[in-house]
Amino acid sequence: MNALSLDTVVLADNKKEMIILDQTLLPGEIKYLTLSKAEDIWEAIYALRVRGAPAIGVAAGYGIYIVASQLETDDMDAFVKNFKEKKAYLDSSRPTAVNLSWALNRMEKVLEENRDKLTVAQMKERLCQEADAIREEDIAISRSIGNLGFELLHHGDGILTHCNAGTLATAKYGTALAPVYIALEHGWDDLHVFCDETRPLLQGARLSAFEMQTAGVDTTLICDNMASITMKRGKINIVFVGCDRVASNGDFANKIGTSGVAILAKHYGIPFYVCAPSSTIDMSLKSGDEIVIEERPAEEVTEMWYAKRMAPEGVKVNNPAFDVTDHSLVTGIITEKGIAYAPFDKAFEKLGIK
Ligand code: MRU
């Protein structure tokens, strides 16, 4: 089994449900969930059953199509009103990954542009096509990022990654791990991938290590606090990470701990690349200070994954799910349109990212 063969989010053949791989159970169990209720889709995103910014975007596209289409009406005004209510609800499931609102806004744009031209039945069909397009484009975007990232690699490189920005975080291939999949396609069998465990939800241990190992890559799991010694020992030649939202100046939010990795990479003189579909770049934000950071329940730190609780009852816990890395620590931002180098706002403009 190769994780690359697992579909993260697809539309069911009946076009009334979506099928997601429940990532909370990986790597122990491969289980798919069939979802159609708005509450279940909201919960699947909130609980990280489907996670990773691009995959959340794909789920949001299918999600809003499915739940909006459940309204039996010929009245376009009623359809639009219900669509907007459901959109706001799904949008509240997680705050940091811009792909969630990006996909929902893209679907709403289709609705607004066609509300006077199509019947409700035709609109449902049109929304379905748009959601499919989001998924198809995501696969192509991930491959482009992979090809550009692959050009930066050398035989025998050690690559450090944080969290999971692999195939499981997208429709296929991933962003930060896409260069490794492309390298495999070119017959390279001498890359070494180091996966940060990524406390507290262990996306590195449970997902990236699983992905890379099943793809046949030489994979080493390290705890988050081992990145420094691994770099000092000369094992890491390049860092690839994903991102949930990039501001116009190149500051970016990614899984908690990413900024520490960037600081270490700078210290040890290791190139640090962010892999970002252009849908993740939020040009409306001047800097990372404007990015909303998701705060998650204390239990994820104190007891989740442990056989018994590992912290004293009542202890205060901070659990920010993301942090913001300053653009000064970033070597380059790999988008599907090209690699952006500082100054990032100018580079994004040049790449046609608005
Ligand atoms: O909380 P998660 O698991 O959704 O966080 C995922 C990440 O931080 C990824 O690095 C990011 O979404 C990019 S995925 C291509």
UniProtKB/TrEMBL annotation:
- Catalytic activities: 5-(methylsulfanyl)-alpha-D-ribose 1-phosphate = 5-(methylsulfanyl)-D-ribulose 1-phosphate
Active-site residues are 244 (proton donor)
InterPro entries in UniProt = IF-2B-related, IF-M1Pi, IF_2B-like_C, Initiation_fac_2B_a/b/d, M1Pi_N, NagB/RpiA_transferase-like
For this UniProt record, the keywords arranged alphabetically read as follows: Amino-acid biosynthesis, Isomerase, Methionine biosynthesis
Kindly list the positions annotated as binding substrate: 51-53, 94, 203, 254-255
Name the site position(s) for Transition state stabilizer.
Answer: 163
Q: Name one GO molecular function term.
A: S-methyl-5-thioribose-1-phosphate isomerase activity
One BP annotation, GO? L-methionine salvage from methylthioadenosine
The role this protein plays is: Catalyzes the interconversion of methylthioribose-1-phosphate (MTR-1-P) into methylthioribulose-1-phosphate (MTRu-1-P).
Q: What is this protein called?
A: Methylthioribose-1-phosphate isomerase
